[in-house]
# Entry
Amino acid sequence: MNARNQISSLFRSSEAARLKRQICDIGRRLWQRNYVDGNGGNITARLNDETFLCTPSQVSKGFMQPADICLVDLKGNQLAGARRRTSEILMHLEIYKLLPRARAVVHAHPPHATAFAVAGKTPPVGITPEFEIFISRVMLCPYATPNSADFAATVRPFAKKFNTLLLQNHGVVTRGSSVEDACFKIEILDMYCQTVLAARALQKKLKPLSRKQIEELRNLRARLTGTREL
# Structure
């Protein structure tokens, strides 16, 4: 089988079909929750060590169909797909290169989390159990023009240690063990940021969890996920 036929077979495999459906389902969820607007945001999933499925450019995440999904290699070259691949693929691939265990990456613009990114601030830590268990801490990546190599490079210093990153004046990017897992982190982060903002309106100084309570949550994370790492 030549290379072209191998790519075609891979792109039409049962695993690719499953991931295409999942990407479209998660895209609709993000759109319905107002985490993406217009044609914003992008989703990728690792198909194997060298190839990745990704959302197309200039298509609303709320209306994607499996036939819209593209296939790219680790350099961002488009291998298959009727539409043009997302223009921000290089940022996703930077994360995959750093973390071979990452199975999916989601980039979106959830309003409360993006408000922190626009303000150039990260949300406080140690306030709610869910955030501590599944995210624990986020980092703020410096601003760079979207779609550029410089933009992709902004995640490089942080992606290996943090599963959730704020992009200065832009939005959020998460990685996960599946497309749904990466989406969960977007949901958890935005709800957390919304809660922090509401709580600060009631009481400017928030009361964090104690060190003992935080350690108990880290132990719980290990039991739930099988690791203390994020």
